[in-house]
Write a structure and sequence with these properties.
4 strands, single chain, four-stranded antiparallel sheet, 5 helices, 37% helix
Length: 142
């Protein structure tokens, strides 16, 4: 592993030590891709999201107002995946991450994985896709 790769891995491991909200196996139909068939017929997309934030206040108070509702993040993911088409999965993931970080100041970092289970490759797969990690310091405030 290169020193740059090791630094990224170390940063990711440091980040995952904290509390996080977890959304796994979200499934939506969208029209993303560069091929005309993908834009016309659409396809299934699989999404996972981790959102790092301090969950101790909600754990102590047992009040929803002290955390972020999973359904709020779910709605962002749904709106992006079922919304305007993107050419690349990277762009879909980036829009999800930037929207989550832009809307919820409590979230310090977000990991978004976008997968396509139906890809024309020679061999069995669960899915192919992308994963991005964005920290609050990477967000451009508008």
């Amino acid at each position: 592993m290169t020193s740059a790769g090791a630094a990224v891995l170390t940063d990711y491991r440091e980040m995952i030590k904290g509390d996080k909200l977890v959304l796994r196996g979200l499934k939506f139909h969208g029209y993303h891709g560069v091929k005309p068939e993908e834009r016309k017929l659409g396809q299934k997309f699989l999404i996972d999201v981790d959102a790092w934030m301090d969950l101790q206040p909600a754990g102590s108070s047992d009040r929803l107002s002290d955390t972020i509702s999973y359904t709020a993040i779910y709605s962002i993911v749904r709106d992006v995946v079922e919304g305007a088409p993107h050419n690349l999965l990277e762009s879909v993931a980036e829009q999800i991450a930037s929207t989550v970080l832009g809307k919820f100041f409590q979230i310090s970092a977000v990991r978004v994985q976008v997968g396509k289970p139906h890809v024309a490759v020679l061999g069995p797969i669960d899915y192919l896709g992308v994963e991005i990690v964005r920290h609050r310091t990477n967000v451009v405030q508008s």
